[in-house]
Write a structure and sequence with these properties.
This protein has 303 residues and is of the alpha/beta class. It contains nine helices and 14 strands. The strands form three sheets. It has a seven-stranded mixed beta sheet, with helices on both faces. Strands 2-3-1-4 form a four-stranded antiparallel beta sheet.
């Protein structure tokens, strides 16, 4: 990560002069990462500047950098990936004359392996690996850490074996983002349950925005008690007390080898909740945390 200050200054002056005088269309490498804390964001931002990034911006926990040279940027990312193995870097190439316009282009955010998420207002299209979500007034736009944890768990568990023959369910669905992610990742039918009328309206909007996943999802205005099973997987992003209330019903209806993906609880509650769920026959397989929140992927034991 060592580049001469003079070399960096010359590079920036050259790029700015070219863009200003010729207004030519050229490729820019746009690199971003979502980090654990502001100190890490500031430290990595400084390293990116020293490595030759033309512009670096830290917005809360999101780190953005812009590179006039794709090879230089990719080399710097490769070095950082070795030094900071826990950071997930997202990059794309954008053609533009003005570097300021690059960051105005919508950039779907990766929320798990093979899954990106974009708010509807960005104008980004939905696709085989991308969901578009309009939150309206329901919970679950995809920006809350607990929602992101569950989406990431969905991506990981969908690479494992999910029992055939059972329903997939999104419990407390809100906007339906978890249901849509399950449908997109598995190609299977998903039922979404939520007692809030606003959730039904948001779900209908998001089904229409996501033509690949939307037709595979079905909304029911109800609580978890309406799920008769059998269930192959249930995703629940709910506060801890509601998770405890719903867990017994869900565990009883999961097929052997079925999954419960639980999020919505603080990190300090993880141990106690995991123990409670283990008592219901649910074995913890994956545990993740972000910004003080936790998520668990638990599997029902084989009969």
């Amino acid at each position: 990560m060592r580049l001469s200050v003079y070399r960096e200054r010359d590079r920036r002056e050259t790029v700015n002069n070219i863009a200003r005088i010729n207004h030519e269309i050229r490729p820019w490498l746009d690199v971003r990462a979502r980090l654990e804390n502001s100190a890490q964001a500031q430290r990595l931002g400084g390293l990116l500047r020293k490595a030759g990034a033309l512009r670096v911006m830290v917005q809360e926990l999101e780190l953005w950098s812009l590179w006039p040279d794709r090879e230089l940027g990719q080399e710097a990312l490769a070095r950082l990936a070795q030094e900071e193995p826990g950071v997930r870097w997202r990059s794309r190439v954008v053609e533009a004359a003005d570097p300021a316009r690059v960051w105005q282009e919508p950039f779907p955010e990766e929320v798990g392996e093979g899954l990106c998420l974009a708010p509807a207002w960005t104008g980004c299209p939905a696709g085989p690996q991308a969901l578009v979500i309009d939150a309206l007034i329901a919970f679950g736009g995809g920006d809350h850490p607990s929602t992101r944890l569950n989406l990431n768990l969905i991506c990981q568990v969908c690479q494992r074996e999910i029992p055939a023959g059972g329903w997939l369910a999104d419990v407390g669905s809100g906007t339906g983002v978890l249901a849509l992610a399950l449908a997109l990742k598995t190609g299977r039918r998903v039922v979404a349950v939520d007692p809030d009328p606003a959730a039904g309206r948001a779900m209908a909007r998001n089904q229409a925005l996501n033509p690949l996943a939307g037709p595979l999802t079905h909304f029911v205005r109800a609580t978890h008690a309406a799920l008769a099973g059998p269930l192959a997987l249930a995703a629940a992003n709910l506060p801890e007390p509601i998770l405890r209330t719903a867990a017994g019903h869900l565990a009883a209806r999961l097929l052997p080898g079925g999954w419960l993906l639980a999020s919505g609880f603080r990190r300090e509650a993880e141990s106690g909740l995991a123990g409670y769920l283990a008592g219901l026959g649910l074995i913890p397989r994956l545990a993740q945390g972000s910004e003080g929140w936790s998520g668990l992927a638990l599997q029902k034991g084989m009969a």
